[in-house]
Amino acid sequence: MSRTEVLDTHAHIVPPSLLTALEQAPVAGFSARRTEQGWVVAVPGAGDTRPIGARMTATAPRAAWLRQTGVTRQVLSPWLDVLAAQLNPGRARDWARTVNDAMAESAAEHTTVALASVATDDGDRAADDLLEAWKRPEFAGLLLNTDPPTGPAPHEPAFDPLWTVAAREGIPVVLHPPTCGPSGDLASLGTMGNVHGRLIDNTVAVTRLILAGVLDRHPDLKLVLVHGGGFLPYQAHRLDGGYRTKEAFDVELARERPSAYLTDFHYDTVGLSGPAVGFLAGLVGAGRVLLGSDYPFALGDPQPVETVRGSGLGEDAVDAVLHANAETLFRRPA
Fold it and tell me: 127: closest CA among 156, 92, 158, 91?
């Protein structure tokens, strides 16, 4: 591996092959059409997506952004807006497999790897589907909605079969909040749902994983938190207080406080300043921090490499964040 490689672990794509296929014939209730603003996908139970521009679908804008930022490769993630549908379990599985086929095609086209998706209405079936996807060399991990539109929440016991497989097989799981998450009920957020709402949703979902004892039951899990872990790393001792006073409590944890689990996670650098990246690395260790951009979204980091280089970390730590950590985490077994 070249020392000059820079690996972006948080980058989205809607495969163009998926859109053209949906334009020709609906799949599991999904369809797509072209508009002046870009592609629009009709999602069962959720309506039309926002227009999908060329930066999300086309090769040329992505390649130009890579050149401009110094990023050499991306781990490709599907866009949750085309996954968060209200489907019966059978159709949800068909749709996840359809998306996975298209994601694998895009990964091969871009000479990289992608994150798979699975329907999570049933934990046992989700575990089987994860194993099925993991057999494909194009996939290096799983993208998991922290607030699935149907079925159990990730911290609930019904999810345990999936966690068991992910831990046993060493499959990285990227925890990503949906565009329309629980924080949408907070009227006071107003137009700041994308500014703070996604961070609230991720913080609450990950907190519930900890408090429910998921990491105690599955200590070998490789979990990646987007957006720098939301607010959790920076307010973890307040959570400790809530656990101590039983305001934030589910089960007795194997460790004495929730913040003791922070070093079990990996965190991307999306939306953080250089000093914040430095703080995060100091809290959980530079080996737990991964470069991320949230490409192609405006609230992502337009210059993620510069952000990491401005963190005040030493050369070895910067090198780890820019590529070595991700290269290790997302490496497929031989």
Answer: 158
- Fold that domain 55-329 belongs to in CATH: TIM Barrel (3.20.20)
- Supply the pTM of this predicted model: 0.96
Residue 75: the pLDDT is: 98
Domain residue limits, the chain: 55-329
- Would you say 284 and 267 are in contact if contact means Cβ atoms under 8 Å apart? yes
Check the CA dihedral 15-265-120-50 and report its sign: negative
Amino acid at 67: R
What are the two backbone dihedrals, phi and then psi, of residue 233, each rounded to the nearest 5 degrees? -60, -25
CA distances, 268 to each of 6, 265, 284, 292, 306 (Å): 13, 10, 12, 5, 14
> Identity (one letter) of the amino acid at 250?
D
pLDDT at 3: 54
What is d(CA 39, CA 116) in angstroms, rounded to the nearest whole number?
Answer: 22
Q: What is the DSSP string of 210-221?
A: HHTTHHHH-TT-
Q: How far apart are CA 318 and CA 313, in angstroms?
A: 6
> How far separated are the first and last CA of the chain, in Å rounded?
16
Low-confidence residues of the chain: pLDDT under 70: 1-3, 333-334
Percentage of the chain beyond pLDDT 70 is 99
Calculate helix-pair angle for 16-24, 89-109, nearest 10 degrees. Answer: 130
Bridge partner list, 40: 33
Nearest to 175 by CA among 132, 212, 230: 230
Give residue 213's region: left, alpha or beta (phi > 0; psi -120 to 50): left
Q: Give the pLDDT of residue 186.
A: 84
Q: What is the pLDDT of residue 2?
A: 42
Q: Which pLDDT belongs to residue 334? A: 58
At 277-288, the pLDDT tens digits run 999 999 999 999
- Residue 108 has a pLDDT of 96
**CA quadruple 151, 83, 143, 332: dihedral, nearest 10:** 120
